[in-house]
Amino acid sequence: MHILRFGSASLVAAALSGCAAAPAATPDPGSQPVPSQTVGVAVSRWTGVFNPKQGYTGTVVTTTRQKAYGNVELLISPDRPNVTRVRLSVSVPVEPGLTNLGWAVHPGGCGSGAPPLMAPGTFPSMVLGSNGRAALDDDIGFTLPGTGSYHVNVFRGAGMQLSDVITCASLRRS
Fold this sequence. Notes:
This protein is mainly β. It has one helix spanning about 1-20, and strands at about 45-50, 70-75, 85-90, 100-105, 125, 135-140, 150-155, 165-170, 170-174. The longest helix has 18 residues, at about 1-20. Residues about 1-25, about 35-40 and about 55-60 have low confidence and may be disordered.
């Protein structure tokens, strides 16, 4: 009977030793640990602030200053170089019949009168709320060149003339 117990105990001990974890590998004493690094993706970012501007009219009368304000941010990721994330918010005076706003990116500074960088219909319009606020957060198939000066015009409805501009933001690369 003792032999049976001894045999069983030997079997259990052998089984348990087979399941034991292997010893941890010890690093070479002359080697240095490799520090982990996080590699960030550089995003090209253009920002601007919409400021009130002097209104234009076709007649010889005193013009009024538009009370519009807001901001714009254009983000271009190296992962998607032909797509720009547009975040635009603007608050404009409420006008009867004005339900949407157009916008476009133009070369040069505000008031330059330069045509937009893309066809006017390619910039999505913004729905104007009853409180005079509009916002856009969308991806568009467009990328600003890395150099140069640019601005964003916000227009009444589908207008694209200087006389339709409600507000403008000069863009700065950051």
